[in-house]
Recover the amino acids of this structure.
């Protein structure tokens, strides 16, 4: 089983258990509840895609939620306080998200530090600005086009899910067939080989983080439309989701492998589990625990079902982003226990 | 050789932090009123003490080349247990403290064992436990608020020692720092932790039992998380399962600003102590200058960002001492961006 179908057993499990729950509690199977699940899945999947772009290049970002908060707040501010037209607001929001990601990528690429610590700091900065501007209060009005996209549906199928599906397809195409996307995967898969082939890691990191910022902004706008208000609390719970979704979707944490449709399916899985726990009247705090356990389950599954790529025999599921990078002058294998022979 | 220059650069770092603290205090004292009042210094001391212990908990991870995202969640389960034992079961304080300490160590050891067994990166393991422990704390307490009435804890967190500006927690924090300093500088397990952080392969090759060393580091870190939880309970006196949700960034600020390398291998305890004092002085000073509290998180992020980038610039010098390590493990780095 390759990384692209690693989520299959999980999906089957979830579909089966959802069917059982649907028979046990009729409320779960109602059209409206399906709509709610799919709506949540659309946002989860986008948040996961934002992380996926960064994981593809072998880095990670803790700032997805921070970018979401900042984009939401500034979009709400421009629209409500400064009376910008809807189009200008949306364009500004997408540009802002991309710019935030670009700054992350630039700082990481230039300093040679791990994305972890840089994005921990910038994420806190972005969230801080969002709270500072609003004093923690939400903006009540959002562009009507966002609200209608966020809330409209055909039977149980929300528009936002279709949008997410299209974006997933776009990301998958980008990573699979377009030069910039392939460059990310090449650098993520084997940084040294990519460097020898003339690819710049710095460039790839900047592109990956910019794409991540853009997708985080899309997720923020979508969430704004669904919620019909712009709150700085957006993104406060995206940290775990952003990792859980790509990991469940079969993304290699070592970089170089990024199944975008896996994210889409994982978003559905996560949203369904979330909803089951709520419908069965289990404490909502159990949802948080479930996400943590799911991360383990998914990595475990990948361990036993996923065949190792022949190109990286000694690799274990570690994050090269956390290992010393080029400027620190130590090999990335060195910081981690060696499992099965060093290449 | 490398060791000596590291100590020297840590000394320089500590001295510059001291200067920064004095300058910032002078600025806040002139611009705002009451910064140097004993009341304000007392409250800075309260929070800085917790941040020192929290920073030490993170430092134990950083020094072995790991990351701990779950510090706050371990703090949450420890606070919840303390509240539950003191309020609901009416158990004596000593018994409760022992149980909380055991819980902290145990929770951290579970992560260590899972990391060693599954060979996953510490990032993923602690990320998963961030949500597992965090969810468990809220789930098991049912979002209950615990009002702590223990006289001893109240005295610890809100009483005074020697002078009206000195909080007993500060003594506790300095003592913990002293213990951790001695562990790193005077004991073999301390050296083993640093060697594992500097190069796990080299440490293993030199006969260090990496698994046991990691277990020690994780266990000690869990103990410090529990201590930080007790300290926060002692000055806040009203705890719930949500304590610790904002610990992540502060836990990195103190060690990183203090000069800890993110790749592991050093443990600047003095720098950490001063960094925590500086960071909390800054927060308190900004509050005194009437900066709205919602902007304080921005300051938090900016301080961490500045610390990381400064550290990077500074360590480009000291890392040259480690070129020996680089030669031992040559990698294809032709044209790699610096």
């Amino acid at each position: 089983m390759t990384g692209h179908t690693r989520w299959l057993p999980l999906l089957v499990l979830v579909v089966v258990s959802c069917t059982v729950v649907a028979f046990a509690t009729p409320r779960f199977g109602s059209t409206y509840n399906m709509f709610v699940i799919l709506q949540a899945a659309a946002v989860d999947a986008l948040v996961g895609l934002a992380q996926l772009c960064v994981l593809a290049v072998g880095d990670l970002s803790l700032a997805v939620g921070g970018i979401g908060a900042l984009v939401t707040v500034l979009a709400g501010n421009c629209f409500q306080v400064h009376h910008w037209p809807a189009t200008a607001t949306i364009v500004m929001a997408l540009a802002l998200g991309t710019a935030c990601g670009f700054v992350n990528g630039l700082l990481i690429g230039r300093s040679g530090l791990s994305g972890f610590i840089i994005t921990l700091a910038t994420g806190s900065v972005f969230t801080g600005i969002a709270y500072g501007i609003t004093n923690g209060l939400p903006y009540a009005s959002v562009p009507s086009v966002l609200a209608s996209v966020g809330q409209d549906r055909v039977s149980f199928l929300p528009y936002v899910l279709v949008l997410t599906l299209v974006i997933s397809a776009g990301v998958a195409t980008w990573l699979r067939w377009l030069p910039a996307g392939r460059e990310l995967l090449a650098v993520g898969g084997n940084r040294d080989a990519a460097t020898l082939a003339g690819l710049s890691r710095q460039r790839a990191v900047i592109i990956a983080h910019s794409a991540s910022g853009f997708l985080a902004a899309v997720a923020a706008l979508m969430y704004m439309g669904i919620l019909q208000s712009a709150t700085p609390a957006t993104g406060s719970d995206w940290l775990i989701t952003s990792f859980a979704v790509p990991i469940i979707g079969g993304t290699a944490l070592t970089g170089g492998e990024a199944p975008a449709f896996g994210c889409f399916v994982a978003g559905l899985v996560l949203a369904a589990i979330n909803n089951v726990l709520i419908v069965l009247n289990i404490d909502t705090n159990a949802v948080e625990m479930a996400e943590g356990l799911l991360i383990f389950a998914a990595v475990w599954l990948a361990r036993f079902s996923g065949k190792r790529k022949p190109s990286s025999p000694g690799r274990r599921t570690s994050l090269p982003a956390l290992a010393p990078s080029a400027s620190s002058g130590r090999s990335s294998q060195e910081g981690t226990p060696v499992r099965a022979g060093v290449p | 050789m490398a060791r000596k220059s590291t100590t020297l650069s840590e000394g320089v770092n500590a001295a510059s932090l001291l200067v920064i603290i004095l300058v910032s205090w002078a600025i806040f004292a002139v611009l705002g009123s009451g910064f140097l009042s004993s009341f304000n210094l007392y409250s800075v001391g309260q929070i800085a003490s917790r941040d020192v212990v929290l920073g030490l908990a993170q430092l134990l991870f950083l020094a072995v080349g790991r990351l701990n995202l779950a510090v706050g969640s371990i703090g949450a389960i420890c606070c919840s247990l303390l509240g539950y034992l003191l309020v609901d079961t009416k158990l004596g304080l000593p018994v409760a403290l022992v149980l909380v300490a055991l819980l902290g160590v145990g929770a951290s050891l579970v992560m260590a064992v899972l990391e060693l067994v599954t060979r996953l990166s510490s990032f993923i393991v602690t990320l998963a436990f961030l949500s597992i422990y965090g969810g468990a704390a809220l789930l098991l307490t049912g979002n209950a608020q615990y009002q702590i009435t223990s006289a001893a804890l109240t005295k610890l967190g809100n009483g005074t020692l020697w002078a009206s500006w000195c909080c007993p927690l500060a003594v506790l924090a300095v003592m913990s720092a002293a213990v951790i300093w001695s562990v790193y500088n005077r004991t073999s397990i301390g050296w083993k932790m640093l060697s594992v952080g500097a190069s796990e392969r080299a440490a293993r090759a030199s006969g260090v039992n990496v698994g046991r060393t990691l277990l020690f580091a994780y266990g000690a870190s869990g103990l410090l998380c529990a201590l930080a939880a007790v300290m926060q309970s002692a000055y806040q006196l009203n705890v719930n399962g949500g304590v610790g949700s904002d610990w992540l960034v502060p836990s990195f600020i103190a060690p990183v600003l203090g000069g800890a390398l993110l790749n592991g291998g050093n443990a600047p305890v003095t720098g950490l102590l001063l960094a925590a004092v500086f960071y909390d002085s800054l927060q308190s000073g900004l509050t005194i200058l009437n900066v709205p509290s919602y902007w304080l998180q921005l300051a938090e992020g900016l301080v961490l960002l500045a610390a990381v980038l400064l550290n990077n610039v500074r360590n480009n010098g000291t890392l040259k001492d480690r070129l020996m390590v680089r030669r031992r493990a040559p990698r294809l780095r032709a044209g790699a961006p610096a």
Q: What stands out?
A: Confidence is low (pLDDT under 50) at residues 318-338 of chain B. The two ends of chain B are 25 Å apart (CA to CA). The longest helix of chain B spans residues 2-31.
